[in-house]
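A protein record in our archive is deliberately plain, so that people and models can read it alike. The record that follows is passed on verbatim for readers who wish to inspect the format.
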Amino acid sequence: MCITAHPDDEAGNFGGCLQLYAGRGVETCVICLTPGQAATHRGSAANDIELAALRRREFAAACAILKVTNGIVLDYPDGQLHRMEAYKVVCELTLKIREFRPQVVLTFGPEGGVTGHTDHSMASIFATLAFHWAGRSNRYPDQFSDRIRPHRVHKLYHATANFTLPDRQPVTPSPITAVIEVGAYLETKIEAFRAHTTQAPLFQMFESRMRQYGGQERFHLAASMVAAPVQTETDLFGGIEKN
């Protein structure tokens, strides 16, 4: 399960891994907290409602390219995640985790990725809390039924990077503990980003950056059911027994 903030985050930050593991038969789920209705680049949209609808369709198209099993866009306000009631947002994400029952959760680091976007930081905080609380019987017990039970996720990874953007406010990324080779999926990753047609003004910059850095996706192991010294991983499912 990958938890993001905006449509296009799934392609730009996690697209290689989503394709890699889908190709290995892994079911994948992307949860996008907002429909991106406050974006600077708005395509043909005349207002926020139209933009949200456009970006939901673009997200669905990108997920199809990335072979995502289940793509979900929630309805929290773009650019305002820091104003949301954390307990409520985490409740919804906890339910999604209990329903999908992933072995691995991916999200941003609390610094907000290389852009330092506030929504990315809040997505990290919400997803991290949901990761920990989904497995506890004393968190949101009203969710439980014959179908919904506590679920402990094996691993939580925060996306990180080995570069920063000079034109942005400074960020301090987490140490890299996993390096996933995704060069074989670079062209499809770019194609998935280009499915977000409202964001066309960003295409050239994104493609240039991906061709420079996009052959690998890097992560920080933020939590694991197995407490052990951290070694650099090349597989996000390393150490997880197959069901």
